[in-house]
Design goal:
about 20% helix; Lipocalin; alpha+beta; 2 helices; globular; 2 domains; eight-stranded antiparallel beta barrel
Length: about 180
């Protein structure tokens, strides 16, 4: 009887694991097109910051559209471009108060080491790509959305943290 119960439990768990893997596989290479609820947490602020950051966590929105200007010969193609609404100054970022448009670009990781250490469904999102303070988010798709780490580099050093993206409307970030 015990063997039958253990066998049933093993088969049931195996089915759930397979369903979770199938769902995760279906997200691999998924388009970022649409609106995403974003949450960024600060792990380590800039070492040369003049003041302490006002918050350790912020929430906002990032929206992407498909980049139709990518060509087959473009090795560093950016499949999605977008904008964001995040108060980065609360984390001690956006220190130059540039009046540039809050742009975001997304692509597969360009660093070959990232491709080896992360699965093929990894994504790189760069906030403020043309700025002297760009913020790089490296994450991974899963059933819930995208989770990962971010790094910001500027004249004040390097700041780091974590982030999560969820499809807009599915669940609200609790900030």
């Amino acid at each position: 009887m015990r063997a039958l119960v253990l066998l049933s439990a093993a088969l049931a768990c195996g089915g759930v694991q397979r369903e979770t893997q199938v769902a995760a596989d279906s997200l691999a290479g998924q388009s970022l097109v649409g609106a995403w609820d974003a949450s960024l947490s600060l792990t380590r602020p800039y070492p040369l910051g003049l003041t302490q950051p006002a918050a350790r966590r912020i929430c906002g929105t990032i929206g992407f559209v498909e980049n139709h200007r990518v060509t087959a010969s473009d090795a560093d193609g950016v499949p999605s471009v977008g904008v964001y609404d995040l108060d980065l100054s609360q984390l001690g970022l956006d220190w130059l108060k540039e009046n540039s448009f809050p742009t975001a670009v997304a692509s597969e990781p360009r660093d070959p080491r990232a491709r080896v250490s992360r699965p093929a469904d990894s994504v790189t999102i760069v906030l403020n790509p043309g700025s002297s303070e760009r913020i790089v988010l490296l994450g991974r798709y899963d059933v819930a959305g995208i989770d990962g780490d971010w790094v910001a580099q500027s004249a004040r050093g390097t700041a780091t943290g974590s982030f999560s993206l969820r499809h807009h409307g599915e669940s609200r970030p609790s900030c």
